[in-house]
Specification:
Blueprint: E1 4-15, E2 18-30, E3 35-39, H1 46-53, E4 61-66, E5 69-70, H2 76-86, E6 87-90, H3 102-115, H4 125-135, H5 150-162, E7 168-172, H6 180-195, E8 200-204, H7 208-211, E9 216-221, E10 224-230
Parallel strand pairs: 3-8, 3-9, 6-7, 7-8
Antiparallel strand pairs: 1-2, 1-4, 4-5, 9-10
Helix pairs in contact: 2-3, 3-5, 4-5, 5-6
Bound molecules: adenosine-5'-triphosphate.
Length: 238
């Protein structure tokens, strides 16, 4: 059964008297463990789709099923709970809490995910060591974000998203602010998350080369999906 199903999703923003159609009739599904990239020019609706899939914005029409549950049928509290337990977010601007160390940022993500779980779990220390090693941040965990490079901050943000073992990882332009070396590290970690940790990854990117690490590439234009192609599904090269 697909883990993400979008059925005729539409979104219109109201801005004063203006109606801005951002998504029209978007339908697709994603299988568990699949890595899907979404590409398209600025304004094509990628971020809007990301926010709707993450339950952060409601669609105007159509429906989104996450693991068989329709977000629109949940109360705000239930939606928040489901988001915390099932989805890991990675943003272009990292969004780390500045007063906490890298480790503190990872721990707080774990605590927040526990709020979404009926049965609380311990921080998965072996997974943290594994992720830190793969991401090359083992020696940086005591540092605060302002003591880390942009690439290191984004690698911490990936560890923060994956430590909770989310079934779905949503990444919005995760390599947008990074140099090639850090971009490749981030892309390869997302690929590992799909291949080895069997997480479903949906990544928005402007960069057609970055999209090639995915199994499948959806192209958007003017709020619609205009193309679906196979990605190469291979590692990015440093
Ligand atoms: N809060 C909002 N209010 C009004 N219009 C909006 C809002 N957010 C987005 N839009 C409009 O919706 C359309 C789709 O925007 P969206 O941010 O989803 O595109 P995008 O493909 O992610 O663009 P980018 O690559 O530049 O981030 C655009 O026309 C945008 O101006």
């Amino acid at each position: 059964m697909p883990i993400i199903v979008a059925q005729s999703v539409g979104k219109t923003y109201k801005s004063g008297k203006l109606q801005v159609p951002a998504l029209r009739n978007v339908s697709f599904s994603v299988e568990p463990g699949e890595f899907v990239a979404v590409v398209g020019p600025s304004g094509s609706g990628k971020s809007t789709l990301f926010y709707i899939l993450g339950g952060l914005t409601a669609a105007t029409s159509g429906s989104v099923l996450i693991d068989g549950t329709d977000f629109a049928r949940l109360s705000d509290a239930e939606r928040t709970k489901m988001r915390r337990a099932k989805i890991g977010f990675v943003f272009q601007r990292f969004n780390l809490l500045p007063t906490l160390s890298a480790m503190g940022n990872i721990e707080i993500a774990h605590d927040i995910a526990n709020l979404g779980r009926d049965k609380k779990i311990e921080l998965d220390k072996p997974l943290l060591e594994h992720l830190s090693g793969l991401l090359g941040i083992s020696g940086r965990l005591d540092h605060r974000p302002n003591e880390l490079s942009g690439g290191e901050q984004q690698r911490v943000a990936i560890a923060r998203a994956l430590i909770t073992r989310p079934s779905i990882v949503l990444a919005d332009e995760p390599t947008g602010n990074l140099d090639t070396k850090n971009s490749d590290a981030v892309l390869n970690m997302l690929r590992t998350s799909s291949r080895e940790l069997h997480q479903t990854v949906l990544m928005i990117t402007h960069n057609p080369e970055a999209a090639q690490v995915a199994d499948r590439i959806l192209t958007m234009r003017d709020g619609e999906i205009t193309g679906i192609a196979a990605g190469r599904g291979i590692a990015a090269t440093v």
